[in-house]
TrEMBL record:
Pfam families: CBS. This is CBS domain-containing protein. Residues 7-65, 73-129 form the CBS domain. The keyword GTP-binding does not apply. It comes from the Bacteria. SUPFAM superfamilies: CBS-domain pair. Keywords: CBS domain. PROSITE patterns: CBS (PS51371).
Length: 130
């Protein structure tokens, strides 16, 4: 199975200069928990933010909701291609300890996000018959 078969198609991104509050509003409006951070006009993915990042890195630290996303985003996030095999991607996610990957096409443009919950569960190996 390929990533494009299970990913959440998402073309909503934020800029590094957007604020925590504007990102939180966008997450609420689009019902997502993560947003890729993209350089406007260039299309390069430079980071990712999650709803947890806003809570833990902005609110819990007493920072203003007008804090720029560049101040708390995860820089240079792992990405995958929409044609990648889901089993390979699941292994990469485990290796890097992440729950989401930004999905890009062959032109390196964002086409979605794949989450661990989107991936098919691995089938347990059959036990040897004695």
């Amino acid at each position: 199975m390929r990533v494009k078969d299970v990913m959440s198609a998402q073309i909503v991104t934020v800029s590094p200069n957007d604020t925590a509050q504007s990102a939180a509003r966008l997450m609420l409006e689009t019902e997502v928990g993560a947003l890729p951070v993209e350089v406007p006009g260039v299309g390069a993915i430079v980071g990712i933010i999650t709803d947890r990042d806003i809570v833990a890195s902005v609110l819990a630290q007493g920072l203003s909701t007008s804090t720029a996303i560049a101040e708390f985003m995860t820089v240079s996030p792992e990405v995958c291609n929409e044609g990648d095999d889901t089993a390979t991607i699941a292994a990469r996610m485990r290796h890097f300890g992440v729950r989401r990957l930004v999905v890009v096409n062959d032109d390196r443009r964002v086409v979605g996000i794949v989450s661990l919950v989107d991936l098919p569960a691995e089938k347990p190996a059959q036990e040897a018959v004695q």
